């Protein structure tokens, strides 16, 4: 069935985020790779945040989706239940918007029999990961860390991808690092291109064209025209929402197992805290179904009336929940309802944050919540133990693979980039090892 000896067959990789950039780099050379990316080359947000804080007073900011007008690399949608979903559209996908956290979260994949040890080792050799930022923490962060320690929460400085020894502590991490400190998947993309891969930006993939059970290529469509691009193998890495959308338009249904890792911030006023100029998520502690970390939440700061305080005078804790795999997309909308158990754990997190604030001398009545948001979608074509070696869900044609968060069996409840890249590396090895079916 598999053709031996023929080289440089054509692979189309859809998306250039954590999964897509990794696959493109791994496959280029064995295949002639073209990366199709819906967004444009990523540029950090150019405007002064102090200036926007002034504009905020005018009341012009009322819907989070306005961000896209000034920062097209950040896509914002709202679920039918009004949760704000954030993801990246541009080279590097969501990774340039990330806070650089690098945590291995492959427990559930391991449980299925998928061993990623080798891939994580390779990533650790290639990507600078450290807690160097700790030596420059500001007094507020140091104080918060000590409070967590004193309450027995065992906080850990967050390992970060990049050269954090050079971090200027400007606090703009989620807007794209203006100083090139953070590592993101554009590095792998650059390597893929330097090896000969072709990167096409501004190219939104509509669907995979399938005939007699095999993919023939991809249809790219905009409002005015539609174009067919042939390929021997197709790797979808358009992210936890983008890939299921493409599959659906290709006649391949996904399951209603969407997770998003909801984020809720719990905040209070504190004069001259300067958390807005600190590296985002400098440390964290882990609880049963959620993590807690200091985080200045710009989404709430700009759009939530309760947050109309000076940026320098807010202290905020983030609760990041590992939510139930229950959510779907239909009628052009994302549907994501928190289950009772999700709500219980979020509430538990809020109580813990109140306890942390109380240790800072801040009363319960002075604490306010942020906007419920999320930025780690995935899980709609989850791997099971049956695919532990093929890494190929049976719903897909033989020559179509998925290599992004869509495959994760459960919500990681924490930073997934490293795990997605390790999985994408293994999928690439599998494609190289077993070849692709003859067309
Ligand atoms: C504010 C924020 C901070 C974060 N911080 C961290 C962190 O510190 N550490 C961490 O591990 N994770 C972090 N994450 C999450 C992480 O960035 C994502 O989970 C991860 O990038 C997902 O990888 P992916 O390959 O599944 O998709 P993405 O990285 O989102 O890439 C998908 C790509 O596909 C493209 N695309 C979508 N549809 C199409 C289409 N139809 N045609 C062509 N291209 C398409 C998109 O433009 C995008 O480039 C953060 C997320 C957010 C929102
Ligand atoms: S805080 Fe550091 S990593 Fe974050 S954007 Fe500023 S310089 Fe870059």
Q: Would you mind describing this structure in some detail?
A:
- There is one protein chain.
- The model is unreliable at 1-5 (pLDDT under 50).
- Helix 1 (18-27) packs parallel to helix 7 and helix 1 (18-27) runs parallel beside helix 11.
- The protein has 439 residues and is of the alpha+beta class.
- It is 26% helix and 21% strand.
- It has two domains: 9-41 and 184-254 and 380-434, FAD/NAD(P)-binding domain (3-Layer(bba) Sandwich); 56-87 and 137-176 and 262-374, no CATH class.
- The protein has eleven helices and 21 strands.
- The site of iron/sulfur cluster has 12 residues, from loops.
Present the secondary structure layout:
Elements: E1 9-14, H1 18-27, E2 31-36, H2 49-56, H3 67-70, E3 74-78, E4 84-88, H4 107-111, H5 117-126, E5 129-130, H6 139-150, E6 156-157, E7 160-161, H7 186-194, E8 198-200, E9 205-211, E10 214-221, E11 226-230, E12 233-236, H8 239-249, E13 262-269, E14 283-286, E15 290-294, H9 298-303, E16 314-321, E17 328-330, E18 333-335, H10 340-359, E19 368-369, E20 373-374, E21 400-402, H11 417-434
Parallel strand pairs: 1-2, 1-12, 2-8, 4-20, 12-21
Antiparallel strand pairs: 3-4, 5-7, 6-14, 9-10, 10-11, 13-16, 13-19, 13-20, 14-15, 15-16, 17-18
Helix pairs in contact: 1-7, 1-11
Bound molecules: flavin-adenine dinucleotide and iron/sulfur cluster (SF4).
Heterogens: flavin-adenine dinucleotide, iron/sulfur cluster
User: How far from one another are the termini?
Assistant: 10 Å
Integer tally of domains: 2
Mean pLDDT: 94
* Low-confidence blocks of residues: 1-5
- Number of DSSP E strands: 21
Shape: globular
Provide a count of the helices.
11
Instruction: Tell me the Rg in angstroms.
Output: 22 Å
Largest sheet: 9 strands, mixed
Helical/strand content category: alpha+beta
- Strand fraction equals 15-25%
């Amino acid at each position: 069935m598999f053709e031996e000896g023929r080289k440089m067959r054509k692979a189309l990789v859809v998306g250039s985020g954590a999964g897509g950039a990794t696959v493109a780099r791994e496959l280029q050379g064995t295949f002639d790779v073209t990366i199709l990316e819906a967004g444009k080359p990523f540029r950090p947000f150019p405007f002064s945040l102090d200036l926007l804080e002034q504009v905020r007073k005018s009341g012009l900011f009322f819907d989070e989706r306005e961000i896209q007008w000034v920062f097209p690399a950040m896509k914002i949608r709202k679920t039918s239940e009004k949760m704000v979903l954030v993801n990246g559209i541009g080279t590097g996908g969501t990774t340039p918007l990330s806070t650089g956290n690098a945590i291995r979260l492959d427990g559930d994949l391991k449980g299925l029999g998928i061993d990623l040890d080798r891939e994580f080792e390779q990533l650790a050799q290639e990507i600078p990961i450290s807690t160097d930022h700790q030596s420059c923490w500001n007094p507020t962060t140091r104080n918060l860390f000590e409070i967590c320690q004193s309450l027995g929460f065992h906080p850990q400085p967050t390992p970060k991808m990049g050269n954090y020894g050079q971090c200027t502590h400007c606090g703009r991490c989620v807007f794209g690092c203006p100083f090139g400190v953070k590592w993101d998947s554009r590095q792998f993309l650059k390597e893929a291109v330097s090896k000969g891969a072709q990167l096409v930006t501004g190219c939104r993939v509509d669907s995979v064209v399938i005939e007699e059970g095999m993919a023939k290529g991809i249809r790219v469509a905009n409002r005015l025209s539609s174009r067919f691009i042939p390929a021997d193998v197709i790797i979808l890495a358009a992210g936890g929402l983008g890939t299921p959308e493409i599959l659906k338009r290709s006649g391949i249904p996904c399951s209603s197992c969407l997770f998003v890792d909801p984020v809720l911030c719990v905040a209070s006023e504190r004069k001259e805290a300067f958390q807005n100029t600190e590296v985002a998520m400098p440390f964290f502690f882990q609880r049963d179904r959620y993590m807690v970390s200091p985080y200045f939440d710009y989404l709430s700061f700009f759009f939530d009336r309760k947050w109309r305080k000076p940026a320098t005078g807010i202290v905020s804790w983030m609760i990041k929940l590992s939510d139930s795999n229950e959510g779907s997309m239909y009628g052009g909308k994302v549907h994501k309802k928190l289950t009772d158990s999700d709500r219980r754990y979020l509430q538990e997190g809020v109580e813990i944050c109140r306890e942390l604030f109380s240790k800072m001398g801040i009363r319960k009545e002075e604490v306010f919540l942020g906007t419920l948001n999320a930025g780690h979608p995935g899980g709609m074509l989850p791997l099971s133990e049956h695919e532990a070696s093929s890494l190929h869900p049976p719903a897909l044609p033989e020559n179509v693979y998925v290599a992004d968060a869509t495959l994760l069996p459960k919500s990681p409840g924490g930073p997934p980039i490293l795990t997605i890249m390790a999985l994408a590396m293994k999928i690439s090895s599998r494609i190289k090892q077993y070849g692709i079916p003859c067309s």
